Amino acid sequence: MAEQVNHNSIETLIGSNYTKWREDVEIALGLLDYEMVIEEEAPAKPAATASAEAKAKYAKWIKANKMAILIMRRSISPSVRGSITPSDNAKKFIDSIVEKFQESKKAEIGTYSNGTTH
Asked: Superkingdom of the source (predicted)?
């Protein structure tokens, strides 16, 4: 039940609300203990002889990664989703979203600056 409440409370990303959306995603993933998948690189798959702890940590990352991608994809409007490079890695996926909106913000600032210099 907590998972449903958390990801349903994420404001749908439509573009202009990127900052709020990013904050909502980080909070939801943090509450679910999934934030590591957007903060850290994917761990290497443990060897067959690895400890049970290493295997459990990897399994947790795999589950968190899948859930984070689903949560993020569900919270992005279809028009925005179509302009984002899909990925099966949550960190790469959110990095592509960040890149898109940093570029948009730079363009917006450039347009604003050009309009105020006349």
From this structure: Eukaryota
7-32: burial string, b at 16+ Cβ within 10 Å, e else: beebeebeeeebeebbebbeebbeeb
Taking each continuous run of H as one helix and of E as one strand, the counts in the chain are: 6, 0
Q: Which two tokens stand for residue 19?
A: 């900052």
Residues facing 76 on adjacent strands: 13
Per the DSSP assignment, residues forming a β-bridge with 13 are 76
Taking alpha carbons only, the member of 91, 70, 77 closest to residue 4 is: 70
pTM above 0.70, yes or no: yes
Q: Name residue 73's amino acid.
A: R
What is the per-residue pLDDT across 40-94, written as a single tens digit (0 to 9) for each? 999 999 999 999 999 999 999 999 999 999 999 999 999 999 999 999 999 999 9
